[in-house]
Structure formats: C-alpha cells, structure tokens
Write a structure and sequence with these properties.
- With 50 residues, the chain is mainly α.
- The protein has one domain.
- Helices cover 86% and strands 0% of the residues.
- The chain is built from two helices and no strands.
- α1 packs antiparallel against α2.
- The longest helix is centred in the last third of the chain and has 24 residues.
- The mean pLDDT is 64.
Length: 50
C-alpha cells in the first residue's frame, strides 16, 4: 500500500513530538504538548503555502 507523503511526514512529526513525553515529568508534558501542537499548525500552514 502506497502512503501519501503528507501522511508519512505527519506521522514522523508526531513520533518526534511524542518521544520526549515518555521521559518528561508531569510539568514538562504540558509544554511539550503545546510545542507539538504548534509544530503541527505550522506544518499545516506551510503545506497550504507551498
């Protein structure tokens, strides 16, 4: 099954964003989630522009 490049890129960003959550304390998790969400939003904006 061929996966679209956009899906593969999204999964890669998600995996990279989620990795620090495994080792973070409870206080750090909120900040990391905000960064991950922000990264996803920026990716979507760039995808629309490019």
């Amino acid at each position: 099954m061929k996966m679209p490049k956009r899906l593969i890129a999204s999964l890669g960003v998600l995996m990279l964003s989620a990795t620090p959550l495994l080792n973070a304390s409870a206080d750090q998790r909120g900040d990391i989630v905000l960064i991950a969400v922000g990264t996803g939003i920026v990716y979507e904006i760039l995808e629309g522009v490019l």
